[in-house]
Design brief:
- The chain is an alpha+beta fold.
- The protein has two domains: 31-262, no CATH class; 313-529, Jelly Rolls.
- It is 55% helix and 10% strand.
């Protein structure tokens, strides 16, 4: 039983991404995979090297004395070429899920960094050293520095958390100081100053960095001063902007370190990591647990804020807002299709919201059916035993023994996919003896709207006419005159009609499923609650 549940969880973990483009998964990398993060680390170092080398080559070295730097920049261009190729094979996140479709990836990349990446590939070896074309080709490589932010962000979300932020601030401060120092040297040359012309390149660069540091920090020892018009104008700009830039850096660093040391989310994740490491939990499971906890904490914080804001509204405004959000979903349920607006608004206000992540277990077989659940966003998948005749739940009296999940795909029953607008747990509104005979797992990040059966009955008691209709339905259901199938709204996939090869492919979560749609039966419930 445990191994079969593990198999179902494995199927669900791989199945959500495979629903859109299963065949492309072989060649598409996840943006937070270790392979992609390792390559990002290489490109970050490569970009920093380019950001240091290109200004040095343009400002401090003569055209005949920088062959080694030109050779180094050639290898930088080769790595950037491989990076472009890898970007076409790296998925991206949409709503917490990874997009694996090649065309979507190409369109997104083309609308983003592709043009700047291609311009930055212009090889310097094809231009004459010291020429205008050489300077333009070198300048076209600078926009690659802007990619440091998204790459560091992937590290923060993928493995390092907020610990990567101090590194990012340090890199930005270092590159900024380096760029300003090179511009200061250009302004000195424009003035024709010869105050340090006898010094070598290393001495000149150290002097320039020293002047930038003293100016930005408002120290200003005065041992290095601008002598010409151009250098004085540049120095004025640096002094005006220097205080603001330095203040922003200090304030940002203070906030970052404060969040890093006092982050409740990161503290919980660190505590859990220590516990799992002490218990010798496998590393792959540790990674999945940390990702799951981080997403749950983020989503719970967002939903908690929404609840606080909603609670601050007046009851009438709460009712109007909730009915606006849920009225269409509630009205699609056959039982509530023609009910009066006040009743629907009361039901909408009684709903509670739940967020589930990909791979989360929503319901398990044997659990009591206590809520009517609507799928507001995402995809759920239900697996049922062949003995359940495609039902998600049944009366406890008709479930004589626990379900036996078959590990073999040839004995697997049916699978039901529930997308936006679907519901389950409708039996809880009429029968408190029903239990789930299926396992429902989230295939993507989902948002569920839950109506507790007890809250429904409490609201129903305030509407005598609807209560009488409800009692008639309940009596006929228990007597077998009408079937619970009339309340269902799902799309079924019957695996018994598939070949053994297709069943095995489905069980691995990699096949492109051909689904047999089952249209919902015409309901006779709406006539019972109609005015």
């Amino acid at each position: 039983m445990a191994e079969d549940r593990k198999t179902i969880n494995t199927l669900c973990t791989s199945g959500s991404a495979a629903q859109k483009d299963r065949h492309s998964l072989i060649s598409i990398l996840k943006p937070n995979s270790y392979v992609r993060l390792l390559w990002d680390a290489i490109i970050i170092l490569n970009t920093i090297l380019a950001g240091i080398t290109i200004p040095l080559r343009l400002v401090y070295f003569d055209s005949d004395a920088s062959q080694s730097l030109d050779d180094l920049l050639m290898y930088v261009d080769v790595l950037w070429l491989f990076d472009i190729m890898l970007n076409f094979n790296t998925g991206y996140f949409v709503g917490g899920e990874v997009v694996h479709d090649h065309r979507s990836i190409a369109r997104t990349y083309a609308r983003g960094w592709l043009c700047l990446d291609l311009l930055g590939l212009c090889p310097l070896s094809l231009t004459g050293k010291g020429s205008t074309a050489y300077v333009v080709a070198s300048a076209l490589k600078f926009p690659r520095l802007l990619q440091l932010f998204p790459r560091f962000s992937r590290f923060r979300l993928g493995c390092c958390g907020k610990a990567v932020l101090p590194v990012f601030v340090t890199v930005v401060a270092m590159l900024s100081t380096h760029m300003i120092a090179c511009l200061w040297r250009i302004s000195i040359r424009a003035d024709g100053s010869t105050q340090d012309s006898q010094h070598d390149i290393t001495h000149k660069y150290v002097n320039d960095v020293y002047w930038v540091s003293t100016t930005l920090t408002s120290v200003g020892f005065g041992d290095i001063i601008p002598l010409g018009l151009t250098s004085r104008l540049f120095a004025s700009v640096v002094m005006v902007l220097g205080s603001a830039i330095f203040g922003v850096v200090i304030s940002g660093s203070s906030i970052i370190f404060s969040q890093l040391l006092n982050s409740e989310t990161e503290n919980k994740i660190t505590e859990l990591s220590r516990f799992m490491h002490h218990r010798a939990v496998p590393r792959e499971l540790q990674t999945r647990v940390r990702d799951n906890l981080r997403q749950h904490l983020v989503y719970s914080e967002a939903s908690g804020m929404a609840k606080e804001v909603l609670a601050s509204l007046s009851p009438a405004m709460q009712s109007e807002l909730c009915s606006c959000i849920l009225s269409e979903t509630i009205s699609s349920f056959p039982l509530f299709r023609n009910a009066q607006w006040s009743f629907v608004a009361a039901l909408a206000q009684a709903h509670c919201w739940e967020q589930v992540l990909r791979g989360d277990l929503v319901t398990d077989e044997g659990h009591a059916v206590e809520d009517l659940v609507f799928v507001m966003d995402g995809i759920l998948q239900a697996w049922m035993s062949p003995t359940c005749e495609g039902q998600l739940d049944s009366r406890s009296s008709s479930t004589d023994a626990p379900l036996e999940w078959q590990a073999s795909p040839t004995l697997l029953g049916s699978s039901k996919e529930m997308t936006v607008g679907a519901w389950f747990g409708e039996g809880s509104l009429f029968d408190d003896q029903r239990v789930y005979t299926s396992v429902i797992i989230a295939m993507t990040r989902c948002e569920l709207s839950v109506l507790p059966a007890q809250e429904y009955l409490k609201i129903l008691s305030k509407y005598p006419g609807l209560l009488d209709a409800h009692n008639i339905i309940k009596r006929d259901l228990l007597a077998g005159k009408i079937s619970m199938k009339s309340l269902r709204h799902k799309v079924e996939v019957d695996l018994s009609s598939l070949s053994i090869k297709a069943k095995r492919s489905f069980y691995k979560g990699w096949f492109s499923s051909s689904k047999q749609s089952v249209a919902p039966e015409e309901s006779n419930f709406s006539s019972l609650v109609s005015p």
